[in-house]
Amino acid sequence: MRNVLMLAAFLAAGPGWAETDIFNLTAAERAAFRAEVRALLLVEPQIVDRALNPPNPAAQEIRQEIDDDLRLLQALAPEILGGRQIALFIGADCAECARAADELEAVSKDYGAEFILHDTRDPASAALADRLGMTDLPFYVLPGMILRGHIPAVVLPRYLD
Known about the structure:
- The chain has 161 residues and is an alpha+beta fold.
- It folds into two domains: 51 residues, no CATH class; 87 residues, Glutaredoxin (3-Layer(aba) Sandwich).
- Strands 2-1-3-4 form a four-stranded mixed beta sheet, with helices on both faces.
- A hairpin with a 2-residue loop joins strand 3 and strand 4.
- The longest helix is centred in the middle third of the chain and has 24 residues.
- The chain is elongated, with a radius of gyration of 29 Å.
- The mean pLDDT is 87.
- InterPro entries: Thioredoxin-like_sf.
- Keywords: Signal.
- This is Disulfide bond formation protein DsbA.
- It comes from Sulfitobacter porphyrae.
């Protein structure tokens, strides 16, 4: 913003610029203007970056939430994954949970992957799900990622490699 104000002040203060209609420049005035703008941009190229990428508070807030979630996952990884590649959270009153557990067990055998099963009927597993803010079962946890819902057996190998 400071640079824009500097440019505006320059344009207003320069010889002859005060009386010049900025939208109706002569060829010589256009050339002089281009030269001054070029010189300014060479000295302070960040002006272009700020103009093309203005601050986006919503994107910054989302990025902060993502970073917070990733830090939480990293902090809880020893408890959730216990050194394994994937964790599955299941619980009572979950129609897809048994199927998800069976498919993960079969796929993990085929791919030599280790998984850990967290049943939210166990208070410790329920507390982990709560800390993650997850209420819908089943869900999977991998390093740096949570996958909501039942993941079909044909898709699971993609996450185990």
